[in-house]
Fold N-acetyltransferase domain-containing protein.
Amino acid sequence: MELREIKDSEIGKIKELRDYAFRFPASGGEADFQYWAENARRLGLFYGEHLLAQVLTYPLAVSILGERFSMGGVAYVASFPEYRNAGLIRQLMEASLEQMRDNGQIVSYLSPFSIPFYRKFGYEVFTEKVELEIPAHALPDMGTVPGRVMRMTSDDGTGISVVRELYNRFALTKKSGMMMRDDAWWLRMARRKYTKEIAVYCDMNGTTMGYMLFTLDHEVFKIHELVALNYEAEKGLWRFVSSHNMMVDRVVAKNVGSLRDIALAFPSPDFQKQEILDFMMRIVDVQAFLEKYRFVNRSETVLYVEVEDETAPWNEGLFEIRGSMVRRVEKPEGAGVLSITIQGLGQMMMGFVRPRDLVYYEKAQASEITIEAWEKVIPHMRSDFYDAY
């Protein structure tokens, strides 16, 4: 058995294994699949010329607290059923993480078929989503707004330009963990028909402050994504949705915020809501991550964190964070130590969970003084990810 890169001429074998393992076609079509397969790092386990298992990694980037981090997007992790439980995927995942570290990809994301399965490789849930289904008669009255909504479309280059600028502002300032979308990613969304219909909210000064990507599918109004820089824009976009109540039976929505956001935004959130944990991340290179991370009052605090990482041993050990300097040490100099798994460290630094909660749920260990020190330096910006398409 040989672990090696999958050649360009062998992409057909990736597709064959994908189709057998996942049993559904690529939603963006074969041209889209071909593009991403050609641009991915492709690792496979072969027996002779036969591909037994595979892992693809896309070269992407995300915004964490407004800072750009290179990200390895893991996709099409699969083996033929007869080779499951033989350790093939573990070999591939470990080799893929080494490649990501060597390529400067500091974090990695994936969409799991099983959360416990990927926890074994250091990944952890970092965002919670809510999907809504609202009968047309129950669409809320959001009141009046001073601005107006303009219709745009992906066929109009101006539309994508406006949406892209708004998305970047949102991803950099309002959330942590969002994709930094390049031209290829916007084209991917267009292939999936997510940008066909666009509604953009402009305030009374004509400034664009929010947008919505949607489609009308027979009698269903589908919201693919709603981005608002303030509550006025959010209300204005929901008023636009409500104006369709005589045309549709119901509205289904995703990528509109968390359950907490819905509870705060709607005067009567009495409709069907489903919470979903559908994306995971891990830190690939702890030292590089800590050096780049935007701590609050970084220069005023000395912190120590002891990391446990069974899959990526280069992350194991005790790290000292002193101002902008991060280094490995044998023992702390006076301050207490936060002992944590790589999974818990990722969740905490992304803003998904606070340090105190991790200690409570026994995902980390620290004294009360140490917990307080970490609570002060981790910013209060919640993580989210809208690109689980």
